[in-house]
């Protein structure tokens, strides 16, 4: 494919609540994205715990590729940390465990007894999250499934393997396992050895843009595509793809990737591995072209999604309009608190958190929704302020990408809390980053700056200017951080 031509690329983008297949068309000065198939991602609770319904997801991928029509390449991204195990014949050994499963409760303390938390952070740069792959593997240490495993594939690599028959471990997603050294961009061999984790289970590392095989003959027959159709490694952690699609026009930006989670931080050239960074719970994940995604995980719109489920699915636009009329900052919670990680009873848990800190308890869905959105904006403010301090880097603008870019109230509250302008969009940032890496591998776009310039010119964006006094946000923060 030569420069000046156009290409068509299928982005398989699997989120924690839904999957989608998008087709991106990239040409000189053009970037169009069309959703061709969307399907739910519903985990299943079995007697042994919470599991992903991976075969239903894979079926949705095939349906999407069939709907996509002829494409020049396919790329796959998904959520992080979870994996499937294969036996010596390449067959899947059971449904992948969901990161919200309870099996990792108390595991971190066992790990730290062997590799203290300070040493673990210095070696891997990853914030403490109880569901990181490292903790999952320690939790699975004595299981029959792990004993029988010949290969471990992270979720997007598993889908790619089923499509191509070729196994690899894409680096941006591997960096979420807590088994990668962000300085060398290779495995942290000492960490794995001390914890008895067999790194030979992992397939060879791949970088975004590397070839990942071709669709197998039976996949071509199933989808109606004409081969050969290459599969390209992209930023297979959806946040890596989303950050690649931040339409920034300067380097002085912060980003918030919003959806089920909020990932708020900076794009850096090197990791920040200080003890202050560890205690602030920032993570150093890997991005495109040698970059580091320096960010903090925040619960995100999961809080609202779970409330909506508890309330029976009320009309969201009407609920957001009502929430906009609620007294601002009446009550806030710590949106990074692991107490909100598990599903179920979210309105009651938010009420309990407000009660425990002596704040008014939300008495209606609108008040609970306003509490959630104020709390997310406050968490965004804290993450972006602290990231700048820890990385010694100043920013002039905050980019909100992902599904939360559609939430006008959240975007305005984030601008107000941060005291910085917010540029919202694109909402489908992960799919766009996925497409652009594929297009770049075929010479249709240039470096990251060129990719971002194309995004800024072609995607609908909305700017929110900060209003009000940030003193009110500082006072609200004191309510939930006071000793």
UniProtKB/TrEMBL annotation:
A biological process term (GO) from this entry: rhamnose catabolic process
InterPro entries (UniProt xref): ATPase_NBD, FGGY_C, FGGY_N, Rhamnulokinase
Stretches assigned to the Carbohydrate kinase FGGY C-terminal domain: 254-441
Signal peptide start and end residues: none
Matches recorded under CDD domains: ASKHA_NBD_FGGY_RhaB-like
Domain Carbohydrate kinase FGGY N-terminal positions: 70-243
MF annotations from Gene Ontology: ATP binding; glycerol kinase activity; rhamnulokinase activity
Ion transport as UniProt keyword: no
Gene Ontology, cellular component aspect: cytosol
Keyword terms of this UniProt record: ATP-binding, Disulfide bond, Kinase, Nucleotide-binding, Rhamnose metabolism, Transferase
Membership in a protein family: Belongs to the FGGY kinase family.
Name of the molecule in the record: Rhamnulokinase
Taxonomic lineage from the root: Bacteria, Bacillati, Actinomycetota, Actinomycetes, Kitasatosporales
